[in-house]
Amino acid sequence: MIDTGATAALEELASHGTATIGEVAPDARILDRGLYPVRAGTVMAGHAVTVQCQPGDNLALHLAIAGLSAGDVLVVDYADDLGTGPFGEVMALACQVRGAAGMVTNGAVRDTAQIRALGFPVFARGVAIRGTTKTDPGRINVPITLAGTEIAPGDIVIGDDDAIVTLPKHRVGQVLEEARARHAKEDQMMTRLRAGETTLDIMRLERRD
């Protein structure tokens, strides 16, 4: 059964943006730059299902996708290989119909126009059109390192145009409260800016004449 409360909390947290999460949660782990959304404006939030996939082979992805549940994010270590595209339109649809929240990989994907049309959130290091074999089962739901960041099965993964961040799942409630508070503070700042104040005034910064 889907925990609608937990899903709503993740969606709201993602709506505040990774920049806000990075500000209010010092323990948030920010993946190194180099992974980008296939479609600009994409927002993704869910629980990590981790995969170690042998470059040149995508059987591990097929196995992992078959076990996905609603709200999962497929997190794939492809060893930074860009020679083949192990994930494309068919797999994106397979993830989508299972209710997955998104996919992120340090490898390449293919069928990017079709993935954009589906609206399924995908973050990747590059694009490659060469196909793969299907013989190596890889490893599923084991700790992996992706873009310089350790990710464990079940970790919260949030992505948008700015970054991809991860959090331990027990931190969602507290970080959400802190994100709400920061958002409210920034809303007040925007109101004062529109009223004619400067950021120097609002933030009480020293003027240098």
Please provide a brief summary of the model.
Keywords: Methyltransferase, Transferase. Helices cover 34% and strands 22% of the residues.
Topology (elements, then pairings):
Elements: H1 4-15, H2 18-24, E1 29-30, E2 36-37, E3 44-52, H3 59-66, E4 72-77, H4 89-97, E5 102-105, E6 108-109, H5 112-118, E7 122-124, E8 126-127, E9 139-140, E10 144-146, E11 149-151, E12 156-159, E13 164-167, H6 172-194, H7 199-203
Parallel strand pairs: 3-4, 4-5, 5-7, 6-8
Antiparallel strand pairs: 1-13, 2-7, 3-9, 3-12, 10-11, 12-13
Helix pairs in contact: 1-6
The biggest sheet amounts to: 9 strands, mixed
Provide the number of structural domains: 1
Mean pLDDT: 94
Strand content bin: 15-25%
Distance between the termini: 62 Å
The computed structural class is: alpha/beta
CATH third-tier fold name: Glucose Oxidase, domain 1
Q: Radius of gyration over alpha carbons?
A: 19 Å
The CATH class: Alpha Beta
| CATH superfamily (homologous) name | Ribonuclease E inhibitor RraA/RraA-like
| Tally of helical segments | 7
Helical proportion, percent range:
25-40%
Segments where pLDDT lies below 50 for 5+ residues? none
- The outline comes out as elongated
Tell me what you see in this structure.
There is one protein chain. The chain is α/β, with parallel strands linked by helices and 209 residues long. The chain has one domain: 3-Layer(bba) Sandwich (Glucose Oxidase, domain 1). The chain has helices spanning 4-15, 18-24, 59-66, 89-97, 112-118, 172-194, 199-203; strands spanning 29-30, 36-37, 44-52, 72-77, 102-105, 108-109, 122-124, 126-127, 139-140, 144-146, 149-151, 156-159, 164-167. Strands 1, 2, 3, 4, 5, 7, 9, 12 and 13 form a nine-stranded mixed beta sheet that branches. It has a two-stranded parallel sheet with strand order 6-8. Helix 1 (4-15) runs parallel beside helix 6 (172-194). The chain is elongated and about 65 Å long. InterPro entries: RraA/RraA-like, RraA/RraA-like_sf. This is Putative 4-hydroxy-4-methyl-2-oxoglutarate aldolase. One of its GO terms (molecular function) is methyltransferase activity. Its cofactor is a divalent metal cation. Keywords: Methyltransferase, Transferase.
